[in-house]
Amino acid sequence: MSGGRPGRLAALIAALVAVFLLMPLIAVIPVSFTPNRYLSVPSGAWSLRHYRDLITNPGWGQAVWLSIRIGLLSSVVATTLALFFSLGIWMLRPRFATVLMGIALLPMVAPPVVSALTLYFLLVSLSQFNSVVAYDTLPGVALAHAVMIAPFAVVLITVALAQVDRRIDLAARAMGAGVLTRVTRVILPNIRFGVLTAFFLTFVLSWEEIGVTIFVTSVNVITLPRMMWMGLRDNIDPAIAAISVVLIVIVVTVILAKTAVQILQRRRSARKTA
Amino acid sequence: MVASLDLTLSGSWKGRGLQNIKAAEIGAEGIGKRFGSFAALDDISLTIGRGEFLTLLGPSGSGKTTFLMILAGFEPATFGRLTLDGRDVTKMPAEERAFGMVFQGYALFPHMTVEQNIAFPLKVQRRSAAEVRRRVAEMVEMVGLGGHGHKRPAGLSGGQQQRVALARALAYEPPVLLLDEPFSALDKNLRGQMQDEVRRLHRETGTTFVFVTHDQSEALALSSRVAIFDHGKLQQLASPQEVYERPANRFVAEFLGDINILPLTDVAPDAAGACGRFEGGVIRAAAGAGCVSGLLAVRPEYMRLSEAAPDGNAVCARIDEVIYLGAETRLELRTRGGIALTLSVATAALPQGLRQGAEIWAGWPEEQGFFL
Amino acid sequence: MSNATRTFVLLGPLLAFIGLTYLVPFLGVMRWSVTLPEPGLGQYQAALSDPLILSVLVRTLRICTLVTLFSVLAAYAVTLIWVRGSPAQRLAIELCILIPFWISVLTRAFGWLALLSNRGILNEWLQSLGILSEPLTLVRNEFGVIVGMTHYLIPFAVFPLASAMRNLDERALMAARGMGASRARVFRNVFVPMTAAGILGAALVVFVFALGFFVTPAILGGGRSVMVAELIYLYIFQIPNWGLAAAVSVILMVAVGVLLALLMRVMRPPVPR
Questions:
Q1: Which of B164, B352, C171, C247 has its CA 20 to 30 A from that of B15?
Q2: Structural domain that includes position C178
Q3: Residue C23 falls inside a structural domain
């Protein structure tokens, strides 16, 4: 163990766990080619009817487009608010920073169902005053998503800021730079990557959000996860398998591409230093 | 090029009034700093003269860095008043004071090139593009980094990064340059070179330099005056020679180099200074000030060895340890009364046949002993 | 800008946002719990005495405990290889953790349905081999819920364990080996205790997460093994009793608050001196 590799037993258990982790994702693939209208494994005849259904049923396209709009709206709001907040904590180091941080992270640490009920209460209450930001409307769902994902943006941007040498900010101040200059010319260029990651992650979280969405939508706002949820609850629609395969392919492609780029970069930098 | 960067900086440069003062005088009156009930600084009063090179020296936790942070405006003082050329700046924030500052670990902007780093303070001050270009070129030349202007800090060595930090801090001719342990990350040879560099920059710019270090030899080598801190108090403020040869108290004496302290008895001032008794012998000191303490201090390098009792001040001691240090040899001695002494002797002048356990006499001139 | 203005401009927006969209509505939920259908603590009394609700709470605790146990054990083995394995092993494990992590909880739950349901891959296969004559009921029951939740939560247990294993002082392991301890002994008596805080942290994260979990149990439990989160959903949308739903939510929030306070205490590094 010391300095060395873990033993064979550990590797074997890890391999079993890895299989367990991938198994349900792989299982989706054959099911998506079933010719039947119910969940089943194709025996003999394979069919593309459920993939065709994704294209011919306009509901799927509408759901995807709706999810993209909600995702963009909520992640822009969440990332912007989180950026201001994290910068404030980092630059000003207020006295009750931990308490303030706790408030900012509350929607992330509270049980999801409690958050869902709370946001249901919020949107039902808002519905009594207006019909724009309300229960079962796009802005309403985007608002609820923004609340749920903002803490993740706070965490990511705070982590990015923690990597920044505080002295470069002090140096800028010592040279007479005001807050705006410090933020735009000194701090932001050094946390660019963290902010982009926060934006990307919050978008994905909104794109996948289902727990809260079930509570704050009914018939008008059908996001992609909401549509899948409806197809999963009672009679299982094999179209869910088709859309799942599409989503899995996207995720796997992105992750493999990212890993490949990382490996190439590592090799290149290794060659440079050698 | 620098001009093509076109950084439209939106700095709140309110310190324009200070801009053309080449060197400023700083006054601190009764500066104190408390963190809760802990007094990090206690009643510091001093004046830093125009164009002076003042070093704040002390062990870690002595309050020297806190004092520098108060000077820079990063930390508010709990008590006291700070003036810049007679103007009260106690409440002025750091960005308005705009003292140049060089940090431990350089604090260069990693996303900017050398030129962009140096141009930054000039752009904050909204100097014209032509002036920024001229000044950056001047500074790059001044610190000997010609040809490195387009590199990022990560591509430079430690010494080069330090030069960029100095150039950046001096580029806009700040009234005061504050340096916070700037050489602590450098190895010994480079440290010597950078000390020469800082001394030269101080001479060429004429700016007031305030330098923080815990390295006593660095402090003695660079400064016009040294302020020694301990436990949040200013222990002594004087020229390097004076703090070394006439330390104000036992802490200063022991902090700066080695010192031998002899507790004398029956001390009395006399016409020539003071005299007292030590282990049966009579010891005289040319300066009688402070003799009531009875503690006579003598730097090891002023002590001379002899086999027989010499004329004048001397004590008899046994050799505990002979430590060869190259050009010098250190001897650890113990007097008959058990007082430990240290001597530094040029190896070339070392008497033959010194060995552990031998008895020997250590003598010193009257004017090299002083009371603590 | 004065310091107060800066604080206000930078920290104000998010705090106001969370305050207005989360804290205030949560107070509203708390109000529901003591006013619907009539003022008083009746709903709390009902929540803690009704045999149906109590059985749901007991089932929730049982499932969460088992899921925590399985997730942390599985995550420990995976993390060990991820942090200390050969470069190829690390890469393989990293992909096996990241891919499921980024895939929607719905897809993952569906995957288990495809695999374990009556006409799913496993049952079809076992039947075609003649091992089974009747399909095994593997989902729409507690087993399915535990499998699905464990699958979902393993990556969340991996992250705290990985940080504990990465921060471990390698020299302590070498010292133990140097003193002649066997590999197994070093693992059991040095490595595991040194990552204990990570294990506890991972367990609490998983447990807290599992408590309020809604989607996976709803799909894989099929309404037959209802957990507390689904109970809240039912009391809002199926058998409207908002006061009771609110009361159960407040109880859940308090329970999670207590667990998080414990977590903070465990994860806080020992105070120097």
A1: B164
A2: 50-267
A3: no
Instruction: Please name the residues between 52 and 111 in chain B that touch chain A, using a CB distance below 8 Å.
Output: 72, 74, 93-96, 98-101, 103-105, 107-111
Cβ contacts (< 8 Å) between A43 and chain C: which residues?
Answer: 124
Which member of A174, A179, A190 has the closest CB to residue B98?
A174
CATH code of the domain containing C64: 1.10.3720.10
Q: Could you tell me if residue C21 is inside a domain? A: no
Query: What's the rounded Cα separation, in Å, for the pair C122 and C116?
Result: 6
Domains of chain A with bracketed CATH: 58-240 (1.10.3720.10)
Task: Give A164-184 pLDDT, tens digit per residue.
Answer: 999 999 999 999 888 899 999
CA distance B238 to A242: 83
pLDDT grade for B1, boundaries at 50, 70 and 90:
very low
Give A154's pLDDT tier (boundaries 50, 70, 90). Answer: very high
| Calpha distance A133→A137 (Å, rounded) | 7
Residues in chain A: 274
Burial class of residue C195 in the structure, from the number of CB atoms within 10 Å of its CB (0-12 exposed, 13-18 middle, 19+ buried): buried
Nearest-angstrom CA–CA distance, A180 and A189: 13
Tens of pLDDT, residue by residue over C93-121, are 999 999 999 999 999 999 999 899 888 88
- φ, ψ for residue B142 (rounded to 5)? -55, -40
Query: How much is the pTM?
Result: 0.84
Beta bridge partners of B46: B28
CA-based R_g, chain C, Å? 23
User: Which pLDDT tens digit goes with each residue over B15-39?
Assistant: 333 334 467 889 999 999 998 888 8
Helical H runs in B211-292?
216-222, 240-245, 250-255
Whether B7 contacts A185, CB under 8 Å: yes
Contacts of A186 in chain B (CB under 8 A): 109
CA angle C190/C194/C195 to nearest 5° reads: 125
Chain C closest-CA separation from residue A10 CA (Å): 6
Q: How far apart are CA C261 and CA C250, in angstroms?
A: 16
C152 pLDDT tier (thresholds 50, 70, 90): very high
**Residue A70 has what pLDDT?**
97
Q: Which of B118, B112, B206, B120 is nearest to B163 (CA)?
A: B118
Average pLDDT on A49-65 reads 91
- d(CA B333, CA A116) in angstroms, rounded, equals 79
Q: Is pLDDT at A208 greater than 90 in this prediction?
A: yes
**C-alpha dist (Å) from residue C268 to A208, B187, C265:** 32, 36, 5
- Tally the domains of chain C: 1
Report pLDDT for A273: 64
